[in-house]
Write a structure and sequence with these properties.
about 200 residues, alpha/beta, five-stranded parallel beta sheet, two-stranded antiparallel ribbon, 7 helices
Length: about 200
């Protein structure tokens, strides 16, 4: 059975187009042997990473104070979910040309030296090999492949850094450029999702 971890990040919750695309992907996988874990980082409302929290990770588990145990548990639980998943699905709206700050706070807690990546003499090596990632990106304007699309390279680099090199993107763009543009973009994105699921089935 394949385990899928879905990470939502929109402030709009169920009304989000990135959420709609991720859920459409899950629906298209119905009937296959999958288990799904869902995390909404907007609802988690993780604080900005602090030196105190990072120090808790770096302290041996047997020597952590009660406060450090509480702080470390946040990251430990998120990392455990990620490690258990065969596939990671990211639902990502574009906010001010970047990813939501809630998603960045999540990433800050799953990038753990010695756990999800390690440093070697030849550079960093990701430790989450053998996993796939699907990114469903929604944008008000049209940015794919342009200078303003900072999401695609950042997400690719980050996922590669922790060992996830099989990364596929589906974009829904022009969502704020009129109803016709939005409807066409969503329809095209859903068509690409069907193509993805057919490849998975093959």
């Amino acid at each position: 059975m394949m385990s899928i971890l879905v990470v939502y990040s929109s402030l709009n919750g169920e009304n989000s187009k990135s959420t709609e695309l991720a859920d459409y992907y899950l629906q298209s996988r119905e009937g296959s042997e999958t288990s799904v874990t869902k995390v909404d980082v907007a609802e988690l409302a993780l604080a900005h990473l602090t030196g105190e929290e990072m120090q808790a990770w770096m302290t041996d588990a047997s020597e952590r104070t009660s406060s450090q145990k509480r702080l470390a548990a946040v990251s430990d639980d998120l990392v455990a979910q990620l490690q258990a998943a065969d596939e990671i699905v990211l639902a990502v709206p574009m906010y001010n040309f970047g990813i939501p700050s809630s998603l960045k706070a999540y990433f800050d807690r799953i990038a753990r030296a010695g756990i999800t990546f390690k440093y070697t003499e030849t550079g960093p090596v990701g430790l989450l090999e053998g996993k796939q990632a699907k990114v469903f990106a929604s944008r008000g304007g049209v940015y794919e492949g342009g200078d303003y699309d900072t999401q695609t390279p950042y997400l690719t680099h980050f996922l590669n850094f922790i060992g996830i090199t099989d990364v596929k993107f589906v974009y829904a763009e022009g969502l704020s450029m009129g109803e016709d543009s939005a409807n066409e973009s969503i329809a095209n994105a859903k068509g690409k999702i069907i193509e993805l699921t057919q490849k998975v089935a093959d």
